[in-house]
Structures are given as structure tokens and as C-alpha cells.
Design goal:
about 325 residues; mainly alpha; 12 helices
């Protein structure tokens, strides 16, 4: 359910936007500063410190069914997702790696129907269509060749996370956002460690820039970003949140152009405009009004205080309650 008025809804859109903008910067930082041959260690180092930091802030452990829910969401939203994104960021240009994720709004709308009972508004569908058209233009117009493994990794990450986000919205209404985010990150990081040891071998040898890059990716692109993202899912529909996620490829393309010297063709600019148009189409409706409060019933008339009963005196008593003459 979106906010009760346009103002609160737009504030939650602004909070949610922190996540895709941060994720857009993650592609560039990973591609430029982190080792390319340790995707599982890279995903674990991204998830576990952020989860432990949020867990220290939330100071709450899972209970009951949240032990297995945290594991499922941790694999979908964190562990498997981070590993696939790491592979995509290393094998694809920054702009191309981020734009594949723009298909997520349409996938989230499809999944949210049976799982959440949310029917997408026509504006949501139009926004998703515009975003998808923009993605196609940007993918087909790039000057660099598209690595098949990188594209498949990015697409798999998008599918996993779309399902995980909708399940998180379905399950997380009874726990604080900070706590559920921490549980998912810790679970995802713990699951990744044995796979990292088995497949990646020794941990990567990081220099100062690598340590700083991992700190940024873990704290900003993970801890802060996912807390904002899941807060948005708590207050907005999955369709609206998915469309806000289109800021991910926008940020990736702009950073790839400004910092990584990746070229931006006219068709890519048109695709970028379509993506931004899709975000605007899916913004929260302005006609939503807060519920009208019930009229307050009028206060009943104040009763006049009773006159004090005079004390008994001469000629008064139980048999003579008044001063009537005999």
C-alpha cells in the first residue's frame, strides 16, 4: 500500500532511490578496484560485514520461522545475487552490466501478482515497458561487445533478486526493517564462505584501494542501500519500487561515461531517456488522499453542579426536609 498521500509516498520514493543509485556506483567500483578472480570472496566480504554492522544496530536475533526465512532471503537477495553481480561487473562494461537489471520492474510486477495480490496499474505497466525499451536500446547500441557469461550472470541476478524482494515484502511486515535486512545479509555471507574457500581458494590479497573499495561496497552499497530498499518495499507497492530501481542503470551509465571513459551513443541517450520516462510514469499517484477522519461528536452539555444540601438545623430533620410553614 502506498502512502496515504502524495507527500509521504514521494518521501519513501526518495528513500528507496538511495539503493539503486548506490548499486549503480557498485558496478564501477567493483570493475575498477576489486580483484576479478574472487567473485565468491567478493560477495561474502560485501555481505557479512554489512550484516554484522546492521545486526549490532538492530540488536535483535531471528525467532521462529525467521531462521529459515532469513536463509532463503539471504541466498536470493544477498549471497547468490552478490556473486552473480560480481561476475557481471567484472565481465561487462559498467553501463551494460547495470542496464540488464532494468528488466526487474516487469519481473517484480509479474511475481507480485500471485504472491502479494498487487495488480499493476496501467502507469506501472507503461513505465516498465518504457524502461524495457530503453534497456534494449542501450544494450544494442553499446560500442563494446557483450560477454555472454556476463549477460547471463546479470540476468540470473535480476531474476533471483526480483523473487527475493517480493518474498521479503510478503514476509517482513512483522519485524523491523533494520533487523530483517541484517539477518539476510549475515545469512547470505555465511552461506558464501564455504563456497568461496572451495572454489576461489585463498582470500584475495588486497591493497589499500581494494580495502577502501570493499568498505564502500559493504557499508554504502550494501548496508545502507538494502535498508533503504526494504524500507521502500514496506511502504510502496512492488511495482513502484521496481521502477525506482531503474535509477540503477541510469547511475551505471552516467558513471561509465564520466569516470570509465565509456562512450555514449545517440541510441543509448534515447534509451536513457526512455528509462527516466518509465520512472516518471510509475511515480505514486497524486490523487490519493488520506482517509477523511470521522466527525468528532459534540460534547454533551455540562451538567450544572447540584446545590449543596444544607446541614440539618432547628426545625429540620428527616421528617421536616424543608422550611415550609406548618
Amino acid at each position: 500500500m502506498e502512502g496515504t498521500s502524495r507527500g509521504p509516498a514521494l518521501r519513501w520514493v526518495a528513500v528507496t532511490a538511495v539503493a539503486p543509485v548506490s548499486w549503480g556506483t557498485n558496478y564501477y567500483v567493483t570493475h575498477a578496484f576489486l580483484p576479478a578472480d574472487s567473485p565468491l570472496y567478493g560477495a561474502a566480504i560485501r555481505a557479512l560485514p554489512a550484516g554484522l554492522l546492521l545486526l549490532a544496530l538492530a540488536r535483535r536475533l531471528p525467532r521462529g520461522s525467521w531462521w529459515w526465512k532469513s536463509l532463503v532471503l539471504g541466498v536470493l537477495n544477498m549471497g547468490g545475487f552478490f556473486a552473480l553481480v560480481y561476475v557481471a561487473a567484472q565481465r561487462l562494461p559498467t553501463s551494460l552490466a547495470s542496464t540488464v537489471m532494468a528488466i526487474a520492474p516487469l519481473v517484480m510486477m509479474v511475481i507480485a501478482g500471485p504472491l502479494l495480490g498487487e495488480r499493476p496499474r496501467p502507469a506501472h505497466l507503461a513505465g516498465a515497458g518504457a524502461g524495457l525499451g530503453g534497456v534494449c536500446l542501450m544494450l544494442l547500441a553499446g560500442t563494446a561487445s557483450a560477454d555472454l557469461i556476463g549477460v547471463l550472470a546479470s540476468a540470473a541476478a535480476m531474476l533471483m533478486s526480483s523473487l527475493g524482494y517480493v518474498l521479503a515484502k510478503r514476509w517482513s511486515s512483522d519485524v523491523p526493517v533494520l533487523a530483517s535486512t541484517a539477518w539476510q545479509l549475515v545469512a547470505g555471507g555465511v552461506v558464501l564462505i564455504p563456497f568461496a574457500v572451495g572454489f576461489d581458494g585463498a582470500p584475495p590479497d588486497l591493497d589499500t584501494s581494494g580495502v577502501l573499495a570493499f568498505a564502500y561496497v559493504s557499508v554504502v552499497c550494501t548496508g545502507l542501500a538494502f535498508a533503504a530498499w526494504f524500507a521502500g518495499l514496506r511502504h510502496l507497492t512492488a511495482g513502484t519500487v521496481g521502477l525506482v530501481g531503474l535509477l540503477n542503470p541510469v547511475t551505471g551509465v552516467l558513471l561509465g561515461t564520466l569516470l570509465a571513459a565509456e562512450s555514449l551513443s545517440l541510441r543509448q541517450l534515447l534509451g536513457l531517456a526512455l528509462v527516466l520516462g518509465g520512472i516518471l510514469l510509475g511515480r505514486p499517484r497524486s490523487g490519493t488522499r488520506p482517509p477523511t477522519p470521522l466527525p468528532t461528536p459534540p460534547h454533551p452539555p455540562r451538567a450544572r453542579p447540584l446545590a449543596p444540601t444544607p446541614p440539618p438545623g432547628p426545625g429540620r430533620g428527616p421528617d421536616r426536609p424543608t422550611d415550609r410553614p406548618d
